[in-house]
UniProtKB/TrEMBL annotation:
It comes from the Eukaryota. Keywords: Carbohydrate metabolism, Fucose metabolism, Glycoprotein, Glycosyltransferase, Membrane, Signal-anchor, Transferase, Transmembrane, Transmembrane helix. It is found in: Membrane. Residues 616-657 are annotated as: Disordered. Pathway: Glycan metabolism. Belongs to the glycosyltransferase GT106 family. One of its GO terms (molecular function) is glycosyltransferase activity. This is O-fucosyltransferase family protein. GO terms for cellular component: Golgi apparatus; membrane. The keyword Glycoprotein applies. Residues 616-629 have a biased composition (Acidic residues). One of its GO terms (biological process) is fucose metabolic process. Its main location: membrane.
């Protein structure tokens, strides 16, 4: 009996404990299991997302491994005497053109002054001197660049002075000195044989530069130090004035404060180059007329020979720019997510903000006007003299007595009602192109406001140049256009190649991309997988050695600063497969080995960089979900445009002291 009662007690206690246990588990499941599951799921998702973002981040922004051996090294390699006060005379110059032409011309002028053993007078930038009422704080050159830095940086290369001696100023005002207008392809022998004797005779020679330069791009190997001098001028001596540099670095800081890297994109939509290549049909209505009008002017100047050209065929062979919408699709195919920050550079955007609407719909697009206040931009210009309004003065209002007298003299009644007053013209309708294109076939001469705006563009281009140099990636919309004029994109690409060769700088072949884009023209926003892979492979190739070889063939013959290799760089390791052109010039691998002191300084940095480096020359496999397999159509081949080297190269000739 006692044993049975103990068994019942144990069974009862076990049942009670089981019930309590079930209740505890139910309570735990109700109040804590949901939070634990969510926490666990979120943690796994976060780890997966973070890992995926890191992989894509490295693929999109990582350094190009094949170019990490290139280091900037523009110092003279051979015997390089310091200039003496006693020389052959003075050279002064007037430079016409925009930002790119000015920068390239200054570099050529310094090289010519060294070649002729002459003193260089700070050149005059006509875009600023022609402007009416710009701030008196700045002279011509100092409106854009730092004069003192320019003079100091070139102490061992050329003697630079701010003006002619007082004894020669009056003679220049009276036009007693010879003035020459050399072409951008002028050879060193032209200056030795033609200019030097006249310089020795008169002691002063003036140059007028309109083509964006005054010395041929490719020089003989014996004049390699003159090429390095060009690099020292462009990349070390030409500093923007402190106010421009300060605001430019502030813009970069504001971009960095957004917490992500950014792409600098220069559309290259400039009216001059669009008219030169006949790309009028890329636009509509008034913009087509404006391009054709400028092309008609170029026919009179002798730059082009026919008015009507097929814009579609020009675009297919790579002679027209990539439109911002197309660039947005290419960046999407490359793998950049929609929240990528894109900085639009360039002071002139032909077509206005309308052409950027598709790109703004795809990415986060900003420019210097959205990142700076109006006050900050106006402070760069300094105090300017007010200009009269372009609007015609309205007729004076009539008194009531005059109106009554006119009514009495109006004739017999009934009379028709007077016509309504003409619609007033607003300021934005009179400024720029829209003020004349609808009223007359002849473009009026630039107004004082137009001239001032052209001077302001130099400042805006300088800001964009600073931001583009510090960008994590750079994409040109219209570089190496074949016109022979230096362009903004090519100068930025050359500077980035010199300063930071492994940085992500796209060198797209527009002919190849035009063929790929034509293949999906009817389905631009839903490309197939194979199209995305083809675009990705092409863009990846342009970042590395293949892009440099193409750039050397196409850009270097017209602008040395767009591809300052091999003279202005050195290598930390030998090249396994160097490449030469048909004329024996180096296309890849012709750089000297870096000096020992540079190699020692790079050892510690290299060891840290090897941990994070990623090869970006390989195609990526990840694509967006909407992309489906399909064969690629219309992808015109590699389309390399081989630039021919000039037939004759002049050997270095030293002028007499």
């Amino acid at each position: 009996m006692i044993i049975r009662s103990k068994i019942k007690l144990v069974a009862l206690i076990g049942a009670i404990l089981s019930v309590v246990s079930i209740l505890v588990h139910l309570l735990l499941a109700k109040y804590s299991s949901e939070d634990w599951v969510i926490y666990k799921t979120d943690t796994i998702a976060d780890l997966y997302v973070n890992f995926g973002e890191q992989v894509r981040y490295r693929r999109l922004w990582g350094p190009v491994q094949s170019l990490e051996a290139l280091q900037p090294h523009a110092s003279p390699r051979n015997k390089y005497p310091v200039p003496k006060e006693q020389n052959n005379g003075y050279i002064y110059a007037k430079i016409y053109g925009g930002f790119g032409k000015i920068r390239s011309s200054i570099c050529d002028l310094v090289a010519i002054a060294r070649l002729l053993n002459a003193t260089l007078v700070i050149p005059e930038i006509q875009e600023s001197t022609r402007s009416k009422g710009i701030s008196s704080k700045f002279k011509s050159f100092s409106y854009l660049y730092n004069e003192d830095q320019f003079i100091t940086a070139l102490t061992n290369d050329v003697i630079v002075v701010k003006s002619l001696p007082n004894s020669l100023k009056d003679a220049r005002k009276e036009n007693r000195f010879l003035t020459i207008s050399p072409k951008s392809s002028a050879s060193p022998s032209f200056y030795i044989n033609e200019v030097l004797p006249k310089l020795k005779q008169s002691k002063v020679v003036g140059l007028v530069l309109t083509d964006g330069g005054c010395l041929q791009s490719i020089l003989p190997p014996s004049m390699a130090d003159y090429q390095r001098l060009r690099c020292r001028v462009a990349f070390h001596a030409l500093h923007f004035r402190p106010e421009i540099q300060a605001l430019g670095h502030q813009i970069v800081g504001r971009l960095r404060a957004m917490g992500q890297r950014y792409i600098a994109f220069h559309p290259g939509l400039v009216r001059e180059t669009l008219a030169f290549h006949g790309c009028a049909e890329l636009f509509q209505d008034v913009h087509t007329e404006l391009i054709q009008y400028r092309r008609k002017q170029m026919i009179k100047w002798g730059n082009v020979h026919e008015l009507r050209v097929d814009s579609v065929s020009r675009r297919s062979n790579g002679s027209c720019p990539l439109m911002p919408e197309e660039v947005g699709r290419l960046l999407h195919a490359r793998g950049y997510p929609p929240n990528t920050l894109i900085y639009v550079a360039g002071s002139e955007l032909f077509g206005g903000q309308r052409v950027l609407i598709p790109l703004r719909a795809m990415y986060n697009v900003v420019d210097h006007t959205s990142l700076c206040s109006k006050k900050e931009l106006l402070n760069l210009l300094g105090p300017e003299t007010p200009l009269p309004s372009n609007l015609s003065n309205p007729p004076p209002s009539k008194t009531e007595a005059q109106l009554i007298e006119e009514w009495k003299k109006a004739g017999p009644r009934p009379r028709p009602l007077p016509p309504p007053p003409a619609r007033p013209y607003y300021q934005h309708e009179k400024e720029g192109w829209y003020g004349w294109v609808g009223e007359t076939d002849k473009e009026p001469d630039p107004s004082p406001m137009d001239l001032r705006s052209q001077a302001h563009r130099l400042i805006w281009d300088a800001l964009d140049y600073i931001v583009s140099m510090d960008a994590d990636a750079f994409f040109p919309g219209f570089h190496n256009d074949g016109s022979g004029w230096p362009d903004f994109s090519s100068l930025v690409m050359g500077h980035r190649l010199y300063k930071m060769a492994p940085a992500v700088t796209f060198r797209p072949n527009r002919k190849t991309l035009a063929g790929l884009l034509d293949g999906i023209r009817d389905n631009l926003y839903h490309p197939k997988r194979n199209w995305t892979i083809a675009v990705r492979e092409h863009l990846n190739k342009t970042l590395g050695i293949e892009g440099l070889i193409t750039q050397s063939r196409t850009s270097r013959p017209s602008s040395f600063l767009s591809h300052p290799l091999p003279e202005c760089s050195c290598r930390t390791s030998q090249v396994s497969n160097p490449v030469k052109g048909r004329d024996g010039e180096w296309l890849h691998g012709g750089e000297d080995m870096c000096p020992d002191w540079m190699l020692r300084d790079l050892v510690s940095l290299r060891s840290n960089a090897l941990k994070d480096e990623i090869i970006v020359d390989e195609p990526e496999d990840d694509v967006y979900p909407e992309e489906q397999p399909e064969s690629v159509s219309g992808g015109g081949g590699g389309g390399r445009m081989d630039g021919s080297r000039q037939s004759e190269q002049d050997e270095e000739m030293d002028p007499d002291d």
